[in-house]
Design goal:
The protein is α+β, with helices and mostly antiparallel strands. It has a single domain (3-95), classed as Alpha-Beta Plaits (2-Layer Sandwich), CATH 3.30.70.100. The protein contains three helices and four strands. The protein has helices at residues 18-33, 62-69, 72-82; strands at 3-10, 38-45, 52-59, 90-95. It has a four-stranded antiparallel beta sheet with strand order 2-3-1-4. β2 (38-45) and β3 (52-59) form a beta hairpin. The longest helix has 16 residues, at 18-33. The N and C termini lie close together (8 Å).
């Protein structure tokens, strides 16, 4: 069953400029696009809080998503990204 994944990331205002945050976010999303089971993705920046970015991606299965989350590539990138986040990314998985 296909799934949608919503990730919310709140970047620290003092640590990073918003264009840098968006660039990091887009790099991580680009890495995900070549993973097995990836269908589509988009990033949205809050108009009320430009340091808040929401990523919505679609995957062919929960297993494909879980496999991507477990890759060394994503884990290494997240170690760098977490240093500039206000709090850990919030991930929600939905059926559709």
């Amino acid at each position: 069953m296909a799934i949608a994944v919503m990730i919310t990331r709140q970047f620290k205002k003092s640590e990073i400029e918003i264009h840098q945050a968006n660039e990091l976010n887009l790099k991580l999303r680009a890495l995900g696009t070549v993973q097995p089971g990836f269908i589509s993705g988009q990033s949205m920046i809050s108009q009320d809080n430009p340091h808040k970015i929401v990523v919505l991606s679609r995957w062919t299965s929960r297993e494909d998503w879980d496999n991507w989350v477990a890759t060394p590539t994503r884990k290494e990138f997240m170690e760098k990204l977490e240093k500039v986040l206000e709090y850990p990314e919030q991930i929600e998985v939905f059926s559709f």
